[in-house]
């Protein structure tokens, strides 16, 4: 159906004197979506009832504009709106009653010899973090078109047992968990389903958006198989934004290669 739709579009453009220019614009957008590395990120907003999120709306589990993990300076939407080489191409508000408050899609503008990268972010209400956890873990075991699945937020498995999953089949999906001590808490669950862990943590840490930018940039340059390059980029970004040494930042991220 997808390619039939493309053929229909091309047939329409042939009727126009502007066929050549419009055709190549169409091809560009099609090639971006088909060839891009697809990253899907699950972001439960920081909930002041569970964590020390900061003052005011930083810990409001439903404040997209003020929440530490979404609207603050290093929150997802605020950071990527301003990030050089990235553009927000779609933004959808969640349906009434949904655990998902907003979805945004961000595309990375590739440099020469880099892959296209498209990132879909799900902002979950912080007081619905269990829904986010179930959706994330089910995505790692079920049919999903994303090349990389990422959890970025509080390590909910520090507080509770893993949920029962809809699909218990094994998976080779690439997964990253940017949360405190994720190797200890998420690691065994992901290992049990066969997920390919490409970025995990060993200590308490801040799961902020510059780490997601580092992941996306490394994916564009090196793909998702080079775990050493992925860890290196995360360490450098964490050291830069946390204003600590790279040696100290290196203690945060697991050695997975």
Walkthrough of the structure:
Keywords: Membrane, Transmembrane, Transmembrane helix. The chain crosses the membrane at residues 21-43. The chain has 257 residues and is an alpha/beta fold. It has one domain. The protein contains nine helices and seven strands. A seven-stranded mixed β-sheet has the order 2-3-4-1-5-6-7, with helices on both faces. Strand 3 and strand 4 (117-124) form a beta hairpin. Helix 7 packs antiparallel against helix 8 (227-242). The longest helix has 17 residues, at 19-35. It is globular and about 45 Å long. 37% of the residues are buried.
Alpha carbon gyration radius: 19 Å
For the biggest sheet, the summary is:
7 strands, mixed
Topology, number of strands:
7
Number of domains: 1
Strand content: 15-25%
Class based on secondary structure composition and strand pairing: alpha/beta
Calculate the terminal CA-CA distance, rounded to whole Å. Answer: 40 Å
Helix percent band? 25-40%
Question: Which residues form runs of ≥5 with pLDDT under 50?
Answer: 1-6, 9-17, 22-32
The global form is globular
Reading side by side through the largest sheet, how are the strands ordered?
Answer: 2-3-4-1-5-6-7
Please provide the ordered H/E string of secondary-structure elements: HHEHEEEHEEHHEHHH
Mean pLDDT: 89
Figure out the total of helices.
9
Transmembrane segments: 21-43
Keywords: Membrane, Transmembrane, Transmembrane helix
């Amino acid at each position: 159906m997808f390619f039939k739709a493309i053929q229909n579009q091309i047939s329409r453009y042939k009727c126009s004197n502007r066929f050549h220019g419009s055709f190549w614009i169409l091809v560009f957008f099609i090639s971006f979506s088909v060839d891009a590395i697809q990253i899907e990120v699950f972001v439960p907003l920081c909930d002041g009832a569970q964590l020390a999120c900061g003052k005011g709306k930083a810990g409001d589990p439903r404040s997209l504009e003020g929440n530490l993990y979404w609207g603050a300076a290093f929150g997802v939407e605020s950071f990527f709106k301003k990030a050089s080489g990235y553009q927000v191409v779609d933004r959808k508000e969640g349906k009434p009653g949904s655990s998902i408050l907003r979805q945004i899609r961000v595309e990375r503008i590739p440099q020469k010899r880099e892959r296209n990268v498209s990132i879909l972010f799900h902002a979950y209400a912080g007081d619905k973090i269990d829904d986010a956890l179930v959706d994330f873990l089910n995505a790692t075991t079920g049919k999903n078109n994303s090349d990389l699945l990422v959890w970025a937020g509080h390590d909910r498995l520090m507080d509770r047992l893993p949920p029962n999953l809809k699909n218990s089949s094994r998976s080779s999906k690439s997964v990253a968990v940017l949360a405190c001590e994720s190797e200890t808490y998420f690691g065994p669950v992901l290992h049990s389903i066969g997920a390919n862990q490409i970025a995990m943590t060993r200590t308490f840490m801040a799961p902020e958006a510059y780490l997601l930018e580092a992941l996306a940039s490394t994916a564009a340059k090196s793909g998702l198989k080079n775990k050493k390059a992925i860890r290196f980029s995360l360490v450098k970004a964490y050291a830069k934004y946390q204003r600590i040494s790279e040696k100290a930042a290196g203690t945060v991220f697991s050695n997975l290669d």
